[in-house]
Amino acid sequence: MAQTVETNVALQNVLATIEIERKKIASTQTKGYLFIVLGIVVGVGGSILGFPIPAIIVGLIPFVYGGILHYKISANLTAYKQAYKQDVVGAALKFLDESLTIQPSMGIQAQEFVYTQLFTQEPDRYNTEDLVNGSAGKTGFYFAEVHAEYKTVTQTKNGTRTEWHDIFKGIIFVADFNKNFNGITIVRPKDFGAAFGAWFSKNIFSFGGSDVVKLENTDFEKTFVTHGSDQVEARYILTPAMMERILNLNHQSKYNISLSFIGSRMHIAFPLQRNYFEAPVFKSLMDPSTVNEDIAVIKFMYDIVKELDLNTRIWGKA
Amino acid sequence: MIIVIIIIVVVVLIGIFFYNSLIAKKNQVTNAFSAIDVMLKKRFDLIPNLVEVVKQYTNYEQGTLTKIVELRSRAASGNISNAEKAELDARLSSSVKGLMVNVENYPDLKANTNFINLQTTWTESEEQIAAARRTYNSAVTDYNNSIMMFPGSLFAGMLNFQPIAVLETAAEERKNISAKELFNN
Q1: Does ipTM top 0.85?
Q2: CB contact, 8 Å: A49 with chain B?
Q3: Topology at the third CATH level for domain B2-184
């Protein structure tokens, strides 16, 4: 990628156009906040000074006006966020590869999330957005932001308390794998639970039915626990070279990734803290760092195909 | 008295558990070897087609082809030990590898769809055999570990469980590739 965001004329033009809209929204929102604060100050200040009723009535006027400003700009804000995804992220995608497209309201559905078996827990609340589709060479892929949670209900003195816990927050990446396989192979990070589960099924229930796949690469074994419905097939997929590539990919991610190979596809879960592809309101779009972070994540996903060498198609799969 | 009985029962149960787990591991080794066997058979079955296709396009590789056919019929004869089979496979695969390199000299053959299909199937079978061998080696290591480590070693000694050798790559495959040698061939 010789061109950067700063030198890409098409992208800069798109950014300049929607930057005008951003400034308008930012200034209206700032004004709105100022009126709201003014209203509160008048109301609270007047009450402290001993004439609460007139102070609250007078304070209510700027407070309501501030609220109206926010309400009036909210439609513009939605349109602006949409435009950012479609035009800016869309242009950035095209700039990387013509085949890439984004559908902000689409995602990876909950059924597919469960089907990937990347996580053992089924979600009770599930959100997904920003589906990016495309291909790198011969390999088709897609990815989307996913937030899956489960809930716990505990009894307290005052009734029940519901708490939500993350199963996964980040990006799920799905690509067509370059080899044929029939079974299921799952690679999960080796946390305490997974390590204990693997040890237990290998050593305590080792009557030939264990699905833990013990691989030769010691770094890989330290980082991940592999489960497979077919021991030979798991190794056919996870060749020594593939294990090295997965480790490399994992080093580039802040948190340990999970992978699964099911139904001729590979799925990778990248846990992330940030919500990507969201338009900033109080930060200039012309600041390259704003868009660069989104572009970096797209490029990272696009490069996985190269990184894992998925375009090498010499194993009888077209 | 009861304590003694409990201790005896626990010891017997532990004994049964370790014995069963050793047997399971041994069976896994046998099972893993049969997986290699299946893959090898699949690969041997590709040979007649490969030879047929190559024959149509070249008159120069007769020596190699005859050698490949001969190795294949020996490998398929069924009266050979596992070690011999592995050795035959190693020779067969190096001959086919040589043939694949020489195919570069025959553009018509290289472009033949049947040949391209066979070539991909061959590479796939190589990868599958490699995976099966790794599975076998992993099962063997697991088995060897349990018969050599305490308390498995006690049972292994009593029941005469012997360590099994892992499959090693053929010396030829382990050699570093030398460009000079490739060009001299």
Answers
A1: no
A2: no
A3: de novo design (two linked rop proteins) (1.20.1440)
